[in-house]
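Sanity check record (used in CI):
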Amino acid sequence: MTIRLRPVEEDDLPFLRRLMSDPDSTGEFQWYGFQNPHHLRRRWEEHGMLSDDGGILIITDGDDRAGFVSWNKQVANRVSHYWAMGLIVAPEFRGRGYGTQAQRLLARYLFDHSTVNRIEASTEITNVAEQRALEKAGFTREGVLRGAGFRAGLWRDGVLYSMIRADLES
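Expected output for N-acetyltransferase:
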């Protein structure tokens, strides 16, 4: 397994749509209902899924698309920001370490190509597999976010993780 991250190409759009809008592909913790099928194409045409405020990269293993990682800018105060990141691994690649490796690669990429000092990731409190993946990738559990996310008709607790630039040096 050789995980790489690469920019989104036009022929990746159906794959992304599947992972974001198909309840059989999103996974239990990422299904938020059907989405506008043209939204991804507009984003891709506007800026290729990469901007100063965030982006999406495809997770690959050789020629296979294994999922995607994403990040977006979060304002900390008037003079600084941090990144919030997430991912979805395709069902056929789950449980094999792709999430851990992709999150580690994205964190390194974001620290290498921006001045941020902090990257956050969160997941539902019952998503134990993602919590393990984040911890293996070097993220630190910070705490529980009570009632922070709405999914499938219920408000759900989340868990917040972070990595700061100094964590890469230790």
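The radius of gyration is 16 Å. If this sentence no longer matches the regenerated tokens, the check is flagged for review.
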